[in-house]
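Quick start: load a record and inspect it. Here is Glycerophosphoinositol inositolphosphodiesterase GDPD2:
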Amino acid sequence: MADPAGCCRPCATCLLCLYSCQWITAKKEKRKGLRTTKCDYSWFLSLFCVFLFTLVWLYFAIIILNDFHNFNEFIFKQTKLWLDWSLLLLIVTTVLVTYSAVLLVLALCLQLCGQPLKLHWLHKTLLILTALVVAAAFTGLGIKWAEEWKSARISLQATGPFLHFGIVGGMTLLAWPLASFIYRTRNTGLKVFLLLVYWMVMIALYLVPLGITSPCIMEENQLPPKPALIGHRGAPMLAPENTLMSLHKAVNCDVQVFETDVMVSADGVPFLMHDEELIRTTNVQAVFPERATFNSTAFNWTDLQQLDAGSWFLERRPFPTVQTLSAGDHNEATKQRIPSLEQVLKEAKQSNISIMFDLRPENHSDYQSFVNATLQVILQSGIPPQQVLWLPDGFREQVKQQAPGLQQVYGRKRLQNEKEPLWHVNLPYQDVSSEEIREYRQDNISVNLYVVNQPWLFSVLWCSGVSSVTTNACQVLKEMKHPIWLLPRSTYLMIWIVVDCVSFLVILWAFVLMKKCSQRTRSAESETDVLLTKINSLMQE
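Running the structure step on this input writes:
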């Protein structure tokens, strides 16, 4: 098999070595009669599928980074071991994608050079392992973290147009090795089948934008106001969560509401704490080792004040941003203690920042006394009642009667024939569609969605018209003056038409050029055969 024009034998030999793990020159290959068999083509198809599989998983891995801190907390709760698993996830995923991509590029180059696709058994084994690892990752995602499928669907509103352009580009480039194969094979049925499949896929891709919807495809003057920021446990990327330092950092980020979690100590003092146990965010194992696994509400206020609520932040580094903190911030973090609700309300009043909180644990037998103690502290603090956003559902009617000025925030969607209108709702961002957000906005219902950390997600919700978002990354979202992208529909349609036309022309060019190359190659082979025949005739004479 002669090398096509522009494909040197050393290059072909090198490609064979990497793909087949055999140092076979083109001449030796011809002598040995190596050809690409149906089995080899099956492995090439498997390689292509594994590459797409790993590429889709890479996309999911990037999307779920928005919520990965929750996964880290879940693993810590199970194992009491803290590690930023997102780093491991990205490293493993990148290795798998890179490996399958390199193999695919080698295979396509071999096809263009007219060399056999003899995938080595070691590559075959590694490809199977890659597919199994990614399949296990998707299975685990579906079982333990099913809401991330909704996150992926939402992400398509931000990435859909660009994914479309990228896929069209990739399929357009695929036309070159496809054309090379079609002009080399003598199987007419296979040629027709491949051409039909390829053009059906391309036509479908060309029409995909008709089904792409994104709230960010709009005119500039239609863009809703930027959502307000609510600090999730303060500013947890800049300070230990649920501490006064975290509250101050949130204020510096122009956060309008400090979102936190309240528990009540054994002697009736409401304090800030998210976990039912104190292990993750304090040094309780060192101070009270025999009671380290006790519920947070089992400690009295005197005991709680002995705990260090800041050093863990520097030791475990729950976010990469910890490394960027100044020496002064490090020193301040080590001095943090568990704050009482009274202290936080005082700071919130001075900073003119609202506070929104959950009261935990909801299933506690003394929950009503927790509500009473918390409500008493709020009423005695002197904070304007409109600065307090009340989230707990338990004994809500009692709270409305005793403190009618508090803003009632509901963790559910409104119901049909609702007797009392909902003016504030607080929901996971996965549970509300862009259409529902627009409907709530038209009805003057304030919608807060949590937890929103990535700029792409913030941009989609901004375009949708959400009122506010709860975030860990207030320092990042604060700097955003505009959504990541905003396209008028007319501009998007024009780009779509241009991309599709360019793609179509490039594909035609690829097939025409590869046909000419194939004709030249066959002509050269015919001339070589004629010359060899003459030489043989002369030698026989």
